[in-house]
Structure to design on (841 residues):
């Protein structure tokens, strides 16, 4: 099951903004992007509960620090016990994995898994919806867009297609609230058109006047029965010390 | 001489019982040597031409695009093939090694599979197909069904995986994998056959048609995956071929000869390297008229030469669309450029030059490989000796040649530290990539030959002892023939001829027996499903590889050893005085 952390952080900064201009889809994507950019530092505690068929439940905890102006983020694992103290540090083009037991740093690829989960290094990078996706159109060239209700909530439902290859899924369908463009649901499809994953944004909160999604659930639609629930807490947008985004910081945590 | 030969042959047949025993001992020695040598050659053949063939080939041309794990792709297949065509005399087969680890969902169960592409179409290599069929015994279905057009993604799966996933022929498997862009991809595949392999490492495999897996993984018609080369005499040719290919794969500068969308103004688009060191050097080399370096690096935008910016009224923040003809003749291929800075071209750069961030540049370059720049279009590019040349993006990065596994690993570790934007190309041989397999082959050969040589040594001690006994027994006979006038030299030669003919006949018998034993042993079907040594079997049978020259070599070795062994007792016999020899009693 794919847990896209860029979506997670996107949701951290998801705005109430709504607009209606050129294309309805582009307008929604633009409003998301405008508010997605993290202007300040950010930190949060993230708990990921993964449930896999025949493998039981695994709870992963991590402290997450992010500074977009330096293309930097740091993840410090707090659970499970065997991952505690391990970490992932990205600064610019460098991406390291830190192993507490051996106190060593190893360069890893941005598409490698993080802490045995399905999240990859590149999921933590700053991404813009408009750079990744274009509105999908039907045979007549019309945007695939509709207005409907998700439960009792009026939503815009629209389809986007990837305009770059560097995305996990080349096709997505979003359900966003009509009143504030908050994403409520998404479906991700493979290039062969198979539904691979459905994501539900279960809970939002407000931080510094912005709506932030703090609970998501991702259902594996390919291998039914697998699911992940991500919960975010202790969110802060206070400035972080420069020393946090260093190897020494991770090493000191192990002492 | 002829008289001596006749006498020696007569003596051989006169002493039938004794010579039969001695000949049998020599025959057993030859038998052991031929069987052991053939088995050893068989191991080498299996390891080098059957196991390594699947793992690395004898020589490998490998790629990695933009540091993505799954992107083992090179976008200009023709270019690579043109280079390989120059080595047709050495390269027997070239095979695209396209495969993926996939999650497969069968009937109620899921498991990981290694999905491998095979070209069993009419255009495929017949020898390669034969080798595959030898390595994987079909126990259900038909290999030809890999190309069955009525089934959705026909697949042939190993018995172990079919059993675990609960699928039978005709069932549908759903598979999930990461394509060359690291995107989640899925497909349905129809089980059309079930195979069994004696190689424990090949048990989690499934095969699919090469074109099908290329489509699923996102390869286009101009792309190629990693190429495994099967070559003549790999032990001798692998390193020289790899060195030659490495030399020919040297990269040029990546250039996009484009034109402005609206004015048809010719524009040369180059990529600048965006690693911190290159950025630092570039910022010292170029004079920025507009824009800021920090913003430019962060936004990954392009630098435009001042005259071009003036003509097209560009400034930092504006966008420009250029068009160019790609390598395959598609004119008007668009490229969108976001301007981040305006630089002074001075006399180094052409007036209409754009320097794009290499990350953005390669996205365009590899997806739509441009036609080669004409000499007049290259005039605007700094020469190879200029400092600026090293700061520009090459077509690809050719990794240095390494000769050992340790060096190869270190090379990859060093490369892993850099987030390379360009495609990496590496040329390696089985000596670096398949060291473990070769070491295993070496150890098994050593064990086999050591055991054979010990047995041969024991046999030879017996032969020496018997020859000494023979001469001792025939001392009176030596005295008689010496007394009637035979020269010392003739006596020595007589014994040497006897030994030679005895060894020759025994060797022939030993070879015949060895061939019969090898035939018998290789007829026995062995089941070593869970034993790694099963990889040395071919279709469940022991594999011997006797060759005329190896058999003749073994015979010659034994003949020489026997004659040399016989020489000293024969010389001693020849030196006996006729009187003393005649007086000799047991």
């Amino acid at each position: 099951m794919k847990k896209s952390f860029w979506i997670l952080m996107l949701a951290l900064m998801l705005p109430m903004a709504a607009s209606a201009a050129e294309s309805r889809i582009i307008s929604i994507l633009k409003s998301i992007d405008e508010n997605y950019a993290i202007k300040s530092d950010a930190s949060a505690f993230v708990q990921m509960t993964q449930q896999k068929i025949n493998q039981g439940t695994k709870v992963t905890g991590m402290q997450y620090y992010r500074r977009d102006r330096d293309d930097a983020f740091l993840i410090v694992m707090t659970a499970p016990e065997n991952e505690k103290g391990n970490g992932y540090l990205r600064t610019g083009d460098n991406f390291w994995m830190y192993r507490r037991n051996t106190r060593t740093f190893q360069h890893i690829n941005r598409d490698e898994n993080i802490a045995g989960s399905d999240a990859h290094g590149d999921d933590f990078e700053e991404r813009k919806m408009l750079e990744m996706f274009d509105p999908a159109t039907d045979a007549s060239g019309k945007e695939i867009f509709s207005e409907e209700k998700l439960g009792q909530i009026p939503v815009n439902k629209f389809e986007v297609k990837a305009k770059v290859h560097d995305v996990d899924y080349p096709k997505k369908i979003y359900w966003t609230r009509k009143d504030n463009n908050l994403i409520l649901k998404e479906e991700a499809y493979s290039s062969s058109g198979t539904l691979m994953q459905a994501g539900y944004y279960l809970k939002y909160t407000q931080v510094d006047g912005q709506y932030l999604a703090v609970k998501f659930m991702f259902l594996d639609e390919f291998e039914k029965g697998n699911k992940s629930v991500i919960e975010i807490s202790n969110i802060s947008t206070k400035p972080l010390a420069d020393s946090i985004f260093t190897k020494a910081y991770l090493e000191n945590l192990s002492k | 001489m002829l008289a001596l030969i006749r006498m020696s042959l007569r003596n051989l047949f006169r002493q039938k019982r004794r010579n039969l025993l001695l000949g049998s001992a020599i025959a057993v020695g030859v038998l052991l040597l031929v069987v052991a040598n053939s088995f050893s050659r068989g191991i080498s053949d299996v390891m080098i031409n059957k196991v390594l063939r699947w793992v690395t080939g004898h020589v490998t041309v490998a790629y990695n695009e933009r540091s993505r794990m799954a992107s083992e792709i090179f976008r200009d297949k023709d270019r690579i093939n043109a280079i390989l065509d120059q080595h047709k005399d050495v390269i027997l087969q070239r095979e695209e090694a396209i495969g993926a680890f996939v999650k497969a969902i069968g009937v109620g169960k899921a498991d990981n599979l290694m999905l491998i592409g095979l070209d069993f179409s009419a255009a495929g290599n017949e020898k390669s197909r034969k080798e595959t069929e030898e390595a994987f015994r079909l126990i259900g279905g038909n290999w030809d069904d890999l190309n069955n057009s009525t089934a959705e993604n026909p697949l042939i799966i190993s018995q172990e995986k079919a059993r675990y996933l609960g699928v039978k022929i005709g069932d549908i498997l759903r598979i999930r994998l990461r394509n060359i862009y690291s995107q989640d991809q899925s497909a349905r595949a129809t089980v059309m056959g079930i195979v069994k392999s004696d190689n424990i490492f090949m048990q989690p495999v499934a095969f699919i048609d090469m074109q099908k897996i290329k489509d699923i993984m996102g390869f286009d018609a101009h792309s190629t995956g990693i190429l495994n080369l099967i070559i003549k005499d790999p032990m001798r040719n692998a390193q020289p071929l790899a060195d030659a290919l490495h030399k020919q794969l040297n990269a040029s500068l990546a250039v996009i000869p484009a034109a402005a969308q609206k004015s048809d103004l010719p524009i040369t688009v180059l990529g600048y390297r965006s690693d911190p060191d290159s950025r630092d050097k570039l910022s010292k080399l170029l004079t920025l008229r507009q824009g800021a370096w920090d913003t430019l690096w962060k936004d990954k935008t392009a630098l435009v030469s001042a005259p071009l910016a003036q003509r097209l009224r560009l400034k930092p923040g504006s966008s420009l669309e250029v068009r160019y003809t790609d390598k395959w003749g598609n004119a008007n291929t668009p490229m969108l450029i976001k301007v981040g800075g305006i630089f002074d071209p001075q006399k180094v750069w052409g007036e209409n030059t754009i320097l794009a961030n290499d990350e953005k540049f390669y996205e365009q370059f590899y997806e739509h490989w441009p036609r080669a720049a004409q000499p007049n279009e290259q005039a605007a590019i700094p020469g190879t000796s200029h400092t600026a040349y090293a700061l520009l993006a090459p077509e690809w990065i050719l990794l240095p040649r390494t000769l050992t596994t340790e060096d190869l690993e270190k090379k990859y570790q060093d490369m892993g530290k850099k987030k390379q934007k360009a495609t990496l190309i590496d040329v390696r041989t089985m000596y670096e990539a398949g060291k473990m397999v070769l070491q295993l082959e070496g150890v098994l050969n050593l064990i086999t030959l050591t055991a054979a040589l010990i047995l041969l040594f024991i046999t030879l001690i017996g032969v020496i002892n018997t020859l000494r006994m023979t001469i001792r027994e025939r001392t009176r006979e030596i005295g008689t023939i010496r007394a009637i006038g035979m020269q010392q030299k003739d006596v020595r030669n007589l014994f040497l001829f006897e030994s030679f003919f005895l060894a020759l006949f025994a060797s022939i018998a030993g070879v015949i027996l060895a061939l019969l034993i090898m035939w018998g042993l290789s007829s026995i079907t062995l089941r070593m499903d869970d034993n790694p040594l099963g990889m040395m079997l071919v279709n469940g049978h022991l594999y011997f590889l006797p060759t005329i020259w190896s058999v003749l070599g073994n015979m010659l070795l034994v003949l020489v050893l026997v004659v040399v062994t016989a020489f000293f007792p024969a010389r001693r016999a020849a030196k006996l005085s006729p009187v003393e020899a005649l007086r000799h009693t047991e």
Remarks:
- Chain B touches chain A through 29 residues (CB under 8 Å).
